[in-house]
Amino acid sequence: MKKIAEYALPFLLALLLLALWEAIVHIRQIRPYILPAPSAIAWALYANWGSLSAAMASTLLITLKGFLGALLTAILLAILFSQSRLAEKALYPYAVVLQVTPVVAIAPLILIWVGFERIDMALALIAGIIAFFPILASAVQGLKSADFNLLDLARLYGATRWQTLRRIQLPAALPGLLTGMKTGAVIALIGEVTAEFAAGSGTATGLAWRIAEAGNRLEIATLFAAVALLALTGVLLFVLLSLLEWALLRRWHESAISREF
Amino acid sequence: MLLSATHLAKRFPNGVAALDDLSFSLTTGDFVSLLGPSGCGKSTALRLIAGLLAPDRGNVTYENGKPDIGFVFQEPTLMPWGDALANARLPLDLKKMPRAEADVAARAALARVGLAGFETAMPRELSGGMKMRVSIARALAAKPKILLLDEPFAALDEITRASLNEDLLRLWREHRERSKQKNESLTILFVTHSVAESCYLSERVLVLSPRPGRLTADIALPKQAERAPGFRLSPQFLDCQRAVSQALERAA
Asked: Could you tell me the domains of chain A?
């Protein structure tokens, strides 16, 4: 009973706020191009569902591509760093520079280099660049956090580098890596949206483009609907990775275990 | 003679001299304690013998080449992501033993430390004493000739510690019994800072001086076979402790 109440609470609160919003818009007769009522937004969502859902699918797909690319690159690079201090010393500063450079600043360059005819790849690349660093940082940190005594045991039994990596370092890195992945996935979405805005007129087909377009046409209800779907996309990514985290860690890691006593 | 350590010295990069000229030897089947105050280089000595550290001076030589060594740390040092069986099996996995065979050996090792039935328990589900048992099972799984233990029971409560002491002695005796037929003897080098523990477990106590550690006494205690039941409460036990305590005081 208490559990149901806990889950229902956020929804009840949302309903209450939406009702309040609806009431204020009607009572004060706020014009729809300033602030549309929730019912108008819902109608816009329904009326434009075909184009909006396609835009959402496009945004989600490009974000996932960028994220998975970043994940693969970051893990491989982190493994390289864990095997060679020289490689870490040489390459890590570049990863930092890549991260601290605002992605908006390099987005136009990447769009030009990759080309507007391959816009999806350019967007995925920008999303990937921004997602890359948190994943790399957490993977590097995680690979270093393996218990020294376990590493000593591996040496004692003559383990190869690969065995040590697979049996001890990678599992030890998993909790940190998953946290980095959650952060990475959510900011990959931010990167994708930023990139779509940077790409501008008519080439991109995602939600950010729909937002810009609706804004220009003063279709504020459609704009709100697109924003809502964008938020939903972000939540979807987060929930997906939280489920993955739970599945991988639930048997052993404190973060995924609920205390029973 | 199973192994000889001669003139071992080790200084760490931060300038701390952990060991200065430590020499001793172990005979096959010995149960020897290495006793000394905190920070006297006991752990360093153990790591040098295991080959996990290289000495600055001196060397460790083995009679018939370096045998398989089991190592038990002060902490259980289990892999939190693996169950008891996976943890006990680690050395065998690393040696690329086929899975089925390794499972049988790891199960047997767990049973020997009294953990039959706990194969699928995760480390977080086990008590401190049980985790230490898994750690010992892991060290035994690969059938080592030498078992090195680095203050393994120091963090445990008195009752758990006593029961683990009994089990360790039992394991060592079992090996001794079997070694009469097969060559399965187990030599144990046990690092501790507890006088009582060293006297209760071992037949020989090596006393180290405070840092940098050097050997100050090599005390032979009554053989386990010659000890009467109830040794822990006997005057003989007190005598042992007195002798070792006095050596420890002289060392300081």
From this structure: 48-260 (1.10.3720.10)
